[in-house]
Design a protein that fits this description.
heterodimer, A: 371 residues, alpha+beta, Ubiquitin-like (UB roll), Alpha-Beta Plaits, 3 domains, four-stranded antiparallel β-sheet, B: 446 residues, alpha/beta, Rossmann fold, de novo design (two linked rop proteins), five-stranded mixed β-sheet, 20 helices
Chain lengths: 371, 446
């Protein structure tokens, strides 16, 4: 029998049509759009828990919720709830709204707020600052102010062996490290204990993680909850220079990124793709013990893409590309008030109003326009 | 007297033993189903009966059964959800304690219909003595040949396992229950795939409530059409209601769906009315997770029609003026109960029981509880009331499992209907924090 090629599914994502293979998730389809045209990077739903190299991740953080306005070509009804794009598979003729749907942006704002209420916001002393996904997520999608007044939940810091420190207070419970421990190391002694907002990542009776690949939990952590003890407080990410290098390693592929401060290698990490996902997991010897340039064959500077403060001056308002969806949202949400005294139609006025309402995305665009 | 299906013989002495249960017509459904019917016919009867899931969601049981995938060579499982832990609901506990053989008979018939050879009853861990009752009953049934290998010589095998849970509310959610049953942490799974496709041990699985399954023997004996004849419209059959709160006669009552709320609340056959010298203030009709109703919307809907104890009538008016039948936890509040305190209490429960997997529920339930605590203790502000509404909106519908919705609805509805009382807590903190003080309406404060 002749093997039939799977027919491609055509989906519409924020008005852009793309053809993908059956079984693809909405998130992967959106990434495909962005890979074809880099100007569409902002359309890709943010992912805090989803991690493509690890099986079973996703669906937990609810950051990537999108609205499906048409289930498929056959069944044109919209899906009743917002769906997590990282685990929802596409159907032929599906129409998805992400940045064009106010409900999605509103829900995402809510998720930012929820993730931050128990986060210590100690970015000034956190090693992850600068490459933290939560920072990016909060900056791009959140509100500037918090409405949370109560005490934040805190935990003690734990050393998981000689190389890794767990600072549970910063954790957003994405479960990525649990999946990592489960899938790339044997004899997992690392999991989640307790429930609700008292849930914590923990090792079995405070056991040290002793495994050749345990260091990878640092790379997968989206926040600064799992940090490299050999790098702690050494430097800020944006002062270091990433360089691709490899060595002949008996345990792993040996392909890494070296982070230089002057002549000194202060950190070794796995190479990551543009979505912040590890390409190849590396072993602890490469990560923690080979910190001399002479140990490595240098390939050249790492190409730094998207979501990095290192290359793009990401947070400088004058360089930020104007996110037009924010303006669209402000327009769509604007309702003229029935008031004979003043009738606002002026776009500048509308922006001014949204600044007063702490709409940061708009504020940014306002600044961008001024410059 | 209304028709009784589940509780007809519940007060017969010794009904928890095999002999007495058998004498009162027990296990005839097993004989009838296994000897004279095919599994498809049993499913057809369940469909005809229109019996809806009694655990809270109200999804038609026959439909659920017909969705079960039946791939070759893969075992199928039936799991009975006896992890009843919603505040205000205690019907399954009562049923299993009083008449355990009814559930076991239902399990045998249902397992036969679904082609399951190993079925589980997942009982919440706190009910250890009920687990012992069930295990003894299973032993008896096994001795008499109604369980085990080659039941009644028909060649059908069934093993029934009682599994104690760890006492987590979240394990009443069907996929969390399956995770827990597999020995893992009780976190709900992402759906799809639904349990009917990939459930317990990645095999097709049906999860049903105790009460739903216990209806099966009667349906087999009397036919699905006879069951469908009871009740009103799409709410067929009878329902156990756990009545609690400020009423004369709290307890578990079996009602025919379609009895009016007024009759259920006030007649001597059922609750017997609000306790002497007091009057009705609010009602939670289906367990703590459904929206609370103020007095004027309880016996009449917003259109002025009589409100009936049916799935449709209780949800008449949507969430603006309606509620849900849910799991049948009928909690009555008289004028001495403080709605803010009660909402805080419910919220505290959901905060404690959130599994912590997805962020809106993990963080939002805790936040709502803290804000409500502040309001109740006289430290709140007017902003907090709107903040609560906003938080509940951001949780609702954005979580993996319905626990997020269950946490959001009571808060949102309490503020919708009793906003004045919340405001009174803000404007009169000293009076509000006095023990036993309750908002009596603006007139009472003068």
């Amino acid at each position: 029998m002749e093997e039939t090629k799977p027919t491609l599914f055509k989906i519409t994502f924020d008005g852009i049509e793309v053809e993908v293979e059956p079984g693809t998730t909405i998130m992967q389809a959106a990434r495909k759009i962005a890979e074809a045209d880099r100007s569409n990077d902002a359309l890709v739903p943010p992912a805090m828990c989803y991690y493509e190299p690890l099986k079973g991740t996703g669906g937990k953080c609810r950051a990537c919720l999108v609205k499906v306005t048409q289930g498929s070509a056959k069944d044109t009804r919209p899906m009743p709830k917002l769906v997590p794009s990282c685990i929802t598979q596409v159907q032929d003729g599906m129409v998805v709204e992400n940045t064009t749907n106010p409900a999605v942006l509103e829900a995402r704002k809510g998720v930012v707020e929820f993730l931050l209420i128990n986060h210590p916001l100690d970015c000034p002393v956190c090693d992850q600052a600068g490459e933290c996904h939560l920072q990016d997520f909060a900056y791009e999608h959140g509100a500037a102010k918090t409405r949370y007044e109560e005490e934040r939940r805190t935990f003690d810091r734990h050393d998981l062996g000689p190389y890794i420190q767990l600072h549970m207070t910063r954790c957003i419970l994405c479960y990525r490290c649990v999946f990592t421990a489960d899938q790339i190391t044997n004899k997992r002694v690392h999991g989640v204990m307790h429930r609700g907002d008292a849930a914590e990542i923990s090792t079995y009776i405070e056991k040290a993680i002793d495994n050749d690949f345990s260091g990878n939990v640092i790379d997968v952590c989206p926040v600064g909850a799992l940090t490299d003890k050999t790098y702690r407080f050494k430097n800020r990410v944006w002062f270091t220079k990433p360089v691709d290098a490899h060595r002949d390693c008996p345990t792993c592929s040996g392909n890494v990124t070296l982070w230089y401060r002057g002549e000194e290698v202060i950190r070794v990490t796995a190479r990551k793709n543009e979505w912040g996902e590890v390409k190849e997991f590396i072993c602890n010897t490469c990560r923690f013990e080979k910190k001399n340039t002479s140990d490595w064959t240098i390939e050249g500077p790492t190409k730094v893409l998207r979501s990095s403060v290192i290359s793009a001056n990401k947070y400088r308002a004058d360089l930020v590309k104007k996110p037009d969806f924010a303006l669209k949202l402000a327009d769509s949400q604007y309702k003229p008030i029935e008031d004979s005294r003043e009738f606002v139609t002026d776009q500048d006025k509308i922006r001014q109003l949204s600044i007063e309402n702490n709409d940061k995305a708009n504020h940014r665009s306002q600044l961008a326009e001024k410059n | 007297m209304a028709k009784k299906i589940l509780t007809e013989y519940i007060n017969v002495p010794g009904i928890d033993t095999f002999e007495v249960y058998r004498k009162h017509g027990g296990y005839t459904a097993v004989e009838k189903a296994l000897k004279t019917m095919t599994p498809e016919e049993v499913v057809e009867e369940a469909k005809k009966s229109g019996v809806r899931g009694r655990g809270g969601a109200g999804f038609p049981m026959g439909m659920k059964w017909s969705f079960l995938a039946k791939p070759e060579g893969v075992p199928r499982y039936l799991v009975c959800n006896a992890d009843e832990s919603e505040p205000g609901t205690f019907k399954d506990h009562y049923l299993m304690k009083m008449i355990p053989h009814l559930l076991i008979e239902g399990m045998i018939v249902s397992s036969f219909a679904l082609g399951a050879n190993k079925s589980f009853i997942y009982v919440r861990g706190e009910l250890m003595y009920v687990i012992r009752i069930l295990e003894r009953a299973i032993e008896e049934a096994k001795e008499k040949g109604f369980l085990g290998k080659n039941i009644l010589g028909t060649g059908y095998d069934l093993e029934l396992v009682v599994q104690p849970g760890g006492g987590a509310y979240i394990c009443g959610e069907e996929t969390a229950l399956l995770e827990s049953l597999e020995g893992k942490r009780g976190n709900p799974r992402n759906k799809p795939p639904f349990p009917a496709i990939k459930g317990l041990y990645q095999s097709p699985t049906v999860v049903n409530n105790v009460e739903s399954i216990s209806n099966m023997p009667w349906i087999i004996n009397n036919g699905g059409d006879a069951y469908a004849a009871i009740g009103v419209g799409r709410s067929t059959g009878t329902k156990l209601i756990s009545a609690s709160g400020h009423i004369r006669k709290p307890g578990v009552y079996e009602i025919e769906l379609g009895v009016s709320v007024d009759e259920f609340l006030n007649s001597d056959e059922y609750c017997g009315g609000v306790r002497d010298g007091h009057y009705l203030k609010a009602l939670v009709a289906g367990g703590s997770s459904v929206p609370i109703l103020p007095a004027h919307l309880i016996t009449k809907t917003a259109n002025g029609e009589d409100r009936l104890m049916t799935y449709e009538s209780l949800s008449d008016g949507g969430f603006a003026t309606g509620t849900m039948l849910g799991s049948g936890g009928f909690i009555v509040f008289d004028e001495t109960s403080c709605i803010v305190r009660n909402t805080w209490n419910f919220s505290r429960f959901y905060h404690h029981e959130s599994c912590g997997q997805c962020s809106p529920c993990r963080e939002g339930t805790g936040w709502m509880e803290k804000v409500l605590h502040r309001l109740e203790h006289g430290h709140g502000s007017m902003h907090d009331i709107d903040l609560l509404v906003d938080i509940s909106k951001k949780i609702e519908g954005n979580t993996i499992c319905p626990l997020g919705d269950a946490a959001a609805w009571p808060v949102a509805s309490a503020i919708r209907h009793f906003r004045e009382e919340f405001e009174w807590h803000v404007t009169h903190p000293q009076e509000a924090t006095r023990p036993g003080a309750v908002y009596m309406g603006s007139a009472a404060l003068v």
